[in-house]
Design brief:
The chain has 169 residues and is mainly α. The protein is built from seven helices and no strands. Helix 1 packs antiparallel against helix 4, helix 4 packs across helix 5 and helix 5 packs antiparallel against helix 6.
Length: 169
């Protein structure tokens, strides 16, 4: 019995850490684009400086069969806001363990669109791309009760707004 509990705790730590890691990927992208922290986004290209957080990617990095569609969206204010709010909410949700299912599915959709925009065909590997790996991880996270592991998901599940609505977990 003790070994089984230890195995369960180890599994919970791994899944919780994986959820936190995926959340940090989204949250960090948001922070870097808003403040221009100098990693992917230089300070002069920060959203706070009035620069579109989607323009560079959509205008220059897109290729493949859907490039025209995504290039046409480059720099659109509504696209910038949807992208940035999506990064923030997906990241926070995964980090806190609240609304993990919605965040995991939303994150998968966002990553899929990013894959369609710039990764068809995959550039560095003829079969796989990191967007696909992240999507698979998020879909696995959506199927597990990982919000309660190293997060506030247990508390969230008891809230009246969430009770009997498993899609909000």
């Amino acid at each position: 019995m003790k070994l089984q509990n230890m195995k369960l705790q180890t599994e919970q730590i791994i899944w919780g850490t994986l959820r936190l890691s995926m959340g940090w990927i989204f949250l960090w992208a948001f922070l870097d684009k808003v403040f221009g922290l100098g990693f992917t986004t230089s300070p002069e290209k920060a959203w706070l400086e009035g620069v579109s957080p989607t323009y560079g990617y959509l205008a220059n990095a897109t290729h493949g069969p859907f490039a025209g569609i995504f290039k046409a969206m480059a720099g659109m204010v509504v696209v910038d806001w949807l992208f940035m709010v999506g990064l923030l909410l997906i990241g926070l949700s995964l980090m806190l363990g609240i609304g993990v299912r919605v965040a995991a599915y939303s994150g998968s959709l966002l990553l899929f669109f990013m894959f369609l925009a710039a990764s068809l065909p995959p550039e560095h590997n003829p079969i796989l791309d990191e967007h696909i790996i992240y999507i698979l991880i998020l879909l696995l996270i959506a199927r597990r009760p990982v919000g309660a592991w190293l997060g506030f998901g247990g508390w969230w599940a008891k809230q009246p707004v969430v009770k009997n609505k498993p899609y909000l977990l």
